Amino acid sequence: MKTICIIPARGGSKGLPGKNIRVLAGKPLIHWPIKAAIASGVIDDVFVSTDDPDIAEQARLAGALVPFLRPSKFAEDLTTTEDTLQQALLEFEAYSNQKFDIAVFLTATDVFRHPSWIKEAITTLVNNPEIESAFAVHKTTKNYWHKNEEGEWERVLPWMREYSSRQIRNKTYREDTGLTCASRAWLWREGRRIGDKVHLIPNDNSETVIDIHSAFDLFLAQKAIDYLVEHRPERVPLFSEELK
Questions:
Q1: Could you cite one Gene Ontology molecular function of this protein (predicted)?
Q2: Are 39 and 122 a contacting pair, CB within 8 Å?
Q3: pLDDT tens digit string along 171-217?
Q4: Alpha helical stretches, state H, the chain
Q5: Distance between CA 242 and CA 8 in Å, rounded?
Q6: Would the N or C end of the chain have less CB density within 10 A of its end CB?
Q7: Sequence-separated (6 or more) residues with CB below 8 Å from residue 43
Q8: How far apart are CA 182 and CA 113, in angstroms?
Q9: Are the CB atoms for 47 and 104 separated by under 8 Å?
Q10: Residue 134 belongs to what H/E stretch?
Q11: How many CB atoms are closer than 10 A to CB 243?
């Protein structure tokens, strides 16, 4: 099966200007998802979708393909990820004159991914034709609340009324597709990021909560890397290798 990894990275960040080429652990942010995709060993093409020439240059230096820039109408503040992925896949397929079977989504702002998650996601789709998408999730025992139709606060799930030790509580799973998401390419062509028949790749790593959209997020990410490289290098193999 032909597999493409598409990494969206527009240039118009407001919360952290120049976000996707800010330096983290000695490299621009855009470097890390590219390196993870290549390290997974199961991706044919790594394509960065960007409207920014500086991001494009850094992406090429890291080993990605950027044969053209994204049209500005797909790089606006309210442009959805689904629209971006659909446009990027269709344009790259037309450019390269090929069709992909599996499409992988990674972001430059979620950096605490393990390349094995990418490999597991793709391998799952290859070996299980009924699965439409496989993606990273964060396992938690926290309770969640929302407002119902009457405007009143209520727990998201009834069992959350019962409190117990976290060791024996039910679990919920936060979708973290920016860390790793592999889907059948036909879903993206239809404008859908993930399907309904899914495989989850759980982790309970605290650092995966860091999604870099501000200077404080970038600071936290660097501190987390410093700690993990010293104490839990198996959780961040790419950073550990870079910082040897």
A1: nucleotidyltransferase activity
A2: no
A3: 999 999 999 999 999 999 999 999 999 999 999 999 999 999 999 99
A4: 31-40, 53-62, 81-96, 115-127, 185-189, 215-231, 237-242
A5: 23
A6: C
A7: 3, 4, 5, 37, 104, 118, 122
A8: 14
A9: no
A10: strand 133-140
A11: 14
Whole-number Å distance between alpha carbons of 29 and 215: 13
Q: What is the DSSP letter of 63?
A: T
Residue 75 token pair: 């790089």
Estimate the crossing angle of helix 115-127 against helix 31-40, to 10 degrees: 50
For the chain, the domains span 3-137+174-242
Q: Count CB atoms within 10 A of the CB of residue 86.
A: 20
- Please write the tens of the pLDDT for every residue from 137-165: 999 999 999 999 999 999 999 999 999 99
User: Among all chains, which residue has been given the structure tokens 């839990």?
Assistant: 232
Which helix (H) or strand (E) is 154 found in, with range?
A: strand 153-155
Q: Which amino acid is at 227?
A: Y
Listed in sequence order, the residues at least 6 apart from 169 whose beta carbon sits closer than 8 Å to its beta carbon are 141
CATH topology of domain 3-137+174-242: Spore Coat Polysaccharide Biosynthesis Protein SpsA; Chain A (3.90.550)
Amino acid at residue number 215: A
Q: Which among 31, 66, 32 has a CA at the least distance from the CA of 47?
A: 66
Contact 56, 69 (CB under 8 A): yes
d(CA 25, CA 86): 31
CA distance 135 to 121: 6
